[in-house]
Amino acid sequence: MPDIIQLLPDNIANQIAAGEVIQRPASAVKELLENAVDAGATQIKLVVNDAGKALVQVIDNGKGMSETDARMSFERHATSKIRNIEDLFHIKTMGFRGEALASIAAVAQVELRSKKESETTGTYIEIDNSVVKKQEAIAMETGTSIAMKNLFFNVPARRNFLKSNPSELRHIVDEFIRVAMSFPDIFFSLTSNGQQVFHLERGTLKQRIVQILGNNYSSKLVNVQEQTDYMNIYGFVGKPETAKKTRGDQYFFVNNRFIKSAYLNHAVMGAFDSMIAKDSFPMYTLFIDLDPAQLDINVHPTKQEIKFEDEKIVYAFVQSAVKHALAQFSISPTLDFELDSTIQQLDAVSKPFTEERKSSVASSSLYNTFSQKNQAHFIENKSELKHWRDFYEPLPKEQSPQTSDPLPAPNQSTPVSNHSPLYSEMCRQVQEETPLQQMHCTYILAQNDAGFIVIHQQNAHERILYERFIKALDGKPIAIQQSLFPQTMELAAGDVVVLKELLPDLHYLGYHLEPFGNNTFVIQGTPADVDQGNEKTAIEKMLEQYKHFSSDLKYSKREKLLRSLAWQQAIKAGRALSQKEMRSLVQDLFTCSLPNITPNGKPTYTAFKKYELDRMFGR
Ligand code: ADP
Ligand code: MG
After folding, report:
1. CA gap 514, 319 in Å, rounded
2. Taking ligand 2, which is a single-atom ion, which protein residues have CB atoms under 5 Å away?
3. Which of 5, 416, 509, 614 falls 20 to 30 Å from 379 in CA-CA distance?
4. What is the atom index within ligand 1 of the atom nearest the CA of 146?
5. 233-265 pLDDT, tens digit each
6. Whose alpha carbon is nearest atom 21 of ligand 1?
7. What's the CA gap between 201 and 257, in Å, rounded?
8. pTM over 0.70
């Protein structure tokens, strides 16, 4: 028998390797755009024809390549970005595997034009099926243009596998947006079959988001920004009212690289909880920067998700940051910015691709490494940053996200650990000397330096109690006032089961109940602020509310109990309050972690700014 093992010819080996990197036109778009970003371009134009099947071309004004580099760039494992394995752990550019151009050249016809600033002529190279057909000097501006034509012309099986043009174009737009979103200081355009689809002038992140996602967000973005020495987060979330019924406008970037993470998505959704309808999706564009050493680097191109060294910290950090931001927007409304009118008229702005993109969540992209722009400021600012521990304290045990479980039990309204300066500011500002006013036995008017606030007493009290109860379960039980004449209460069999389950938690919350056989309980004690004589009704109402929540699977039993009790015990609208009662309500409210909404997301107060009032009166 003859020996049967043979080495594959280079072009076949490249074609096989290309299968992992270039699956569809959009994969080439991603690689070419990233190369242009890495080359330091400030202007990047993407041109596609026939949804990228006929042509994908990226033209940049970056640093360009020398004649030799231009030729080398198509070799497999040819990269200027890493030299040794150690580099992998500090990588700061978008690409580094050195496979993209080699792969593209293996499965398409490629034309490269490139010129370095320092050289007078550029280089033109034509490659088909990994074979150089032509190489010559040309005159051109500094930068690089790479055109990929007739993708898979030499691999018919793969070409047939491509989807319809609208579907492939959607993938391209997705990749384009992901890169354009993370580099607002670079001009990007996308032209499809001769028509300009996107024209994104350089600007701020906020402007970029509006350019891409549409003008309806322009005054509806809430700024998220927290810095610690462990990690930074910045970006925007849409105000709750902009949440949509379909997922879509949700972007996470880690070190400027788009990632998909159900885990982080869950963290953000948790922060929005009870501010938006259950089946709706808020917009977010969030950037997380952290030391690449805190990430598990996986260089395999099909890996979908990023791994953090400490997922729990990242989860809690993201959730807290978004909660902070949301809590603040009602206090300090975001100022709208002017959008360049020429930009507004473009189709891309007036008719964003969002509708189309909604259906394409399945498409995903993979960024395994980390880019430099934000890394740089992350490291520079280090000395001024607060320690991350100041920001992050572990969540109560039963509510901490589980690393083993990609979708942890919701910890909806776990208060953020440190108070935003704004809240304490608000509280301090509520002028001690000015008396509080109650109106309609429901609203409390409190004057502060900036104007005045109107507090809804019932909503506010619900928030206060809710947070107090969380603390109670976390080890600061509420004092029980023992009844002198313990009452008994009889319940329906179904309620007995429910109540028995709740007894241990209820004890922490100030209710001492004992089963007394035959569907009967004895009320031995209740919290001090439950009126004596009313204990029975209080418990019955709480149970009623608890059962009302029961169908709601997303809440744990505890969460339902806390919410029911807070709802039940809160002082109601219509009750007259003394000056002292109002004062302590206001104080308690502003020492809450999330003072501006009830556990269910209703506002607790509204602020009226003096300058706004002045404006209303033409002053
Ligand atoms: P990688 O980006 O992983 O290094 P690629 O195959 O994408 O690998 O590119 C190979 C090399 O070609 C890059 O390292 C870079 O030096 C060079 N290169 C590619 N595209 C450009 C470009 N648009 N401008 C300048 N240099 C480029
Ligand atoms: Mg690359």
Report:
1. 39
2. 35, 95, 100
3. 416
4. 23
5. 999 999 988 888 888 799 999 888 888 888 899
6. 35
7. 20
8. no
